[in-house]
Each structure stands twice: as structure tokens, then as C-alpha cells.
Design a protein that fits this description.
Blueprint: H1 2-15, H2 17-26, H3 34-43, H4 49-56, H5 61-73, H6 81-90, H7 98-104
């Protein structure tokens, strides 16, 4: 039952990231903390990279905190700037909107 709900939450997230996260929180599949949501996005199992980028690019204060927690999950030690950017950008797809991209960088 739980696995079905998680799969449903992923599907909802891929269609509408905010509604997907809300569904997972309401069904106690995800805690409503920046860290837990960031971990869920970082693992990215079955998640659309474009949807992850859209969620992380939102300008709500909470989404920005999730973005910061998401960045903290990456290990950039011993990487040069290009390698670090490549690793970071591999985990989601940048949204097309310039303001969102600016916020993320």
C-alpha cells in the first residue's frame, strides 16, 4: 500500500511538483521539512528532472530553503568548478526561465 502511494506521489510530482510534494506530505510519506524534501529530490527515483528543476526554481522562501538543502547534499570536495557544476546540473534540469536559473546559480 505504501509503495503504491509513493509511486502515485512520484507520478503527481512529475505532472505538478507542488501537488506531488503536498500529496506525499499529506499521506505521511514525506516530512514537511526542507531536508526531507531535498533528500527525496536528490534521490530522484522515478522523478522527472525537469519537474525537480521547476520545484527547486520556485521563488517561495520554503522552496529556496529546499534548494539550499539540496545543494548541501552534493559532495563538491576536490572538484574544480566545471566538475562541480556538471555534477550539480546532472541531478535536475534547469528551468527555461532566466529568473529561476539565476536563483539556482
Amino acid at each position: 500500500q505504501r509503495n503504491k502511494q509513493v509511486a502515485m506521489g512520484r507520478k503527481k510530482f512529475n505532472m505538478d511538483p507542488k501537488k506531488g510534494i503536498q500529496f506525499l506530505i499529506e499521506n505521511d510519506l514525506l516530512k514537511n521539512t526542507c531536508e526531507d524534501i531535498a533528500q527525496f529530490l536528490y534521490k530522484g527515483e522515478g522523478l522527472n528532472k525537469t519537474a525537480i528543476g521547476d520545484y527547486l526554481g520556485e521563488r517561495d522562501e520554503f522552496n529556496i530553503q529546499v534548494l539550499h538543502a539540496f545543494v548541501e547534499l552534493h559532495e563538491f570536495t576536490d572538484l574544480n568548478l566545471v566538475q562541480a557544476l556538471r555534477q550539480f546540473l546532472w541531478s535536475f534540469r534547469l528551468p527555461g526561465e532566466a529568473q529561476k536559473i539565476d536563483r539556482m546559480m
